[in-house]
Amino acid sequence: MSTSLYHQVGHNSNWNIESYQTDGCGDGLILSPVHQNFEVIKRLPREVRARSLFDPQYYLPNSQKAKLNSYDFFPEIISGGFSTVGFSANARESAKRCIEFQVEQEFSGIVIPARHFTEMNPDYTADQTSYTVEPCLQEISAATLGVPVWLTLPLTSAMIKHAAYRTEILNWVTSYPEIDGVYVIIEDERETKQIQSRDLLIAQLDFLTELRAADLDIIVGHCNTEALLFSLVDGCAITFGSFENTRMFSIDKFVSSMEERRGPRARSYLRGLLNWIQFAQAREIYRDAPDIWGQVYEANQYGDDALLSPTEPFFNQPALYKHHFLNFQAQVRELSSYDSHGRYELLRNWLSTAISLDAGLQSRRFDLERHGRGDHLQPWLDAINSYYRRHLDA
Question: Residue 54 in contact with residue 33, Cβ under 8 Å?
Fold first, then answer.
């Protein structure tokens, strides 16, 4: 079964739109009101909206972000200052306006928003039900819409690793026959850019498998390279993004701050290593180890232009991200050409090869900085091997 791939749109959304329209990358967009205001979304080409979804992003309902507050249905605006008690009187009207906007823009489906909880809230399902789920379902039922309905499901790594908590959420989600699919987002607070927890990946794969067994469609949002592993689950759509805050969910981007942040170092996605490497170090591999470079780098115009530029590109220039979009899509399309057993074998081969290439770089005295090293590769291999033994080896 083919794995659908969506752009997780963030800052500089024109890069994603250009990649989708010009380069044929991705099957659609997941649009972000924290990055695109009301008028910008409405001006998107109809054919783009028709293949895309709008994430209403109610995660932090009292967010002061200006673009979020350009939407008259956002909790902070419709309540005149959000409070849990005060919003209850406006929840149905907020749902009505939110659903109407998505219908008017002719998106490919309707997304029910949800609140993000940083802790393992014992009232998670009850709070989400009263906050948005019941009001939205009432409006959707009244409108008798003919498009898929997606439930946003923001979780933390602690929630998804807790088997009983995960089961409670699964039972809650499956109690709504009106819901066709789940837009899953998992926040994992960690110090590394790639997930290095074998247990978290196993829990994620198990949860996605449980959702599919309940005949629910799935989109996993805010994925980094680990999205490739989720292709093991038949019918699981995944996302890819440009900046790191589209590849790793954090509530931080919904918080207004006057603090200036220094831009990160530019990175290049090297598909043979299944990782993003600091561009300066990638260029050293290109120069000093061309034999390894030929095994880790997949050429295209964008990557070559950056590589051959006399100066190091800035993180806010599009070439390296568009290079990533093409490379990542090629990997997803290759995986999609196999059944689940074939996808497992291909992933196992990619991971084993990446481990060997990473070791080869170390033996050649390339000491990659901590985020560029292959420390995530063995836990990923362990996770898919565990998945194979428990779900595919029948």
Answer: yes
Write down the pLDDT at residue 1: 66
Count of other CB atoms within 10 angstroms of residue 113: 26
CA–CA separation, 235 vs 308, rounded Å?
Answer: 39
The rounded radius of gyration (Å) of the Cα atoms in the chain is: 21
CB 71 within 8 A of CB 31: no
- Selection from 91, 89, 82 nearest residue 112 by Cα: 91
Half-sphere exposure of 107 (CA within 13 A, CB side): 24
CA distances from 334 to 55, 217, 342, 346 (A): 28, 21, 10, 9
- Cα of first residue to Cα of last residue in the chain, in angstroms, is 19
d(CA 179, CA 136): 11
CA quadruple 381, 374, 12, 70: dihedral sign: positive
What is the token pair recorded at 180? 């066709």
CA pair distance 173, 179, nearest whole angstrom: 8
User: How many Å apart are CA 216 and CA 223, to the nearest integer?
Assistant: 19
Residues contacting residue 310 through CB under 8 Å, at least 6 positions apart:
none
Q: Which residue has the tokens 């931080």?
A: 252
Q: At 376, list the tokens.
A: 């995530």
Helix pair angle (301-308, 319-336), 10° resolution: 140
Of the CA atoms within 13 Å of residue 94, those in its CB half-sphere come to 30
Q: In this structure, which amino acid lies at residue 149? A: V
Pair of tokens at residue 160: 């998804």
Token pair belonging to 292: 């390894």
Its pTM stands at: 0.96
pLDDT confidence of residue 3: 96
pLDDT of residue 2: 85
Give the model's confidence band at 292: pLDDT under 50 very low, under 70 low, under 90 confident, else very high: very high
Residue pLDDT, tens place only, 36-52: 999 999 999 999 999 99
E-state strands within 249-367: 267-270, 275-278
* AA identity, residue 169: I
